């Protein structure tokens, strides 16, 4: 899979993709993440990426031209399955959307800034708009990193235990059960006996019950 991220603040993405699981996934060639600096696609002598909004009002609007120059360059090299715009008014991101996007070959993600992009970009070039939640970030970069992380960890070979992504919270519309590690007792706080029993069937049953209980208590909306 290849993910191209288009941004006016490329350095914001150095850390999320330069460490841990996402770094290793790239080193193992399981995914290629390319961060494209919009400024390099500006033809303006001051390399401006934004301008005042027609009709007035506070806040700048991202210019069409650098975005289209960047999109067209990238699209001349490969076809994209989705051209995504990160925006707080987009479709709410979810595990099922991550699952679906993890099956694609090439994704292009545009990060918004200031008051957003010229609406004509959204109307004519964007195929999908994604929000990571009902709050407003200063830009789409962190949201793009969240979406990319959720997708990349699902790619075969990225997680060392192949089954662990399948047992995550939300994969079956249930939150994950509690987990414990050594010691079995710490300052009087004990690990549930069933987990020490060695009885796999009983452990599975307990985990499922815990998941259902937790989901009912914490996220009742997930259980229909
Ligand atoms: N850009 C700013 N806020 C955002 C959000 N909540 N989701 C996606 N992109 C954003």
In short:
The protein has 224 residues and is of the alpha/beta class.
Index terms:
single chain, Alpha/beta knot, Trp Operon Repressor, Chain A, 2 domains, five-stranded parallel sheet, two-stranded antiparallel ribbon, 8 helices, 9 strands, 33% helix, elongated, binds adenine
Description:
There is one protein chain. The chain is elongated and about 70 Å long. It starts with a strand and ends in a 6-residue tail after the last helix. It contains eight helices and nine strands. A hairpin with a 2-residue loop joins β8 (185-186) and β9 (189-190). 33% of the residues lie in helices and 19% in strands. The protein has 224 residues and is of the alpha/beta class. It has helices at 14-17, 20-27, 64-77, 95-101, 119-124, 141-152, 193-196, 200-218; strands at 2-7, 32-37, 50-52, 60-62, 82-92, 106-111, 128-131, 185-186, 189-190. The strands form three sheets. It has a five-stranded parallel β-sheet with strand order 2-1-6-5-7. Strands 3-4 form a two-stranded antiparallel sheet. The chain has two domains: 2-152, 3-Layer(aba) Sandwich (Alpha/beta knot), CATH 3.40.1280; 169-222, Orthogonal Bundle (Trp Operon Repressor, Chain A), CATH 1.10.1270.20. Adenine (ADE) is lined by residues 86-88, 112, 131-133, 135-137, 140, 143.
Shape: elongated
Helicity level = 25-40%
Which stretches of 5+ consecutive residues score pLDDT under 50? none
Bound molecules: adenine
Across the major sheet, the strand order is: 2-1-6-5-7
Largest sheet, in brief, is:
5 strands, parallel
CATH homology superfamily of the largest domain: SPOUT methyltransferase, trefoil knot domain
Count of spatially separate domains: 2
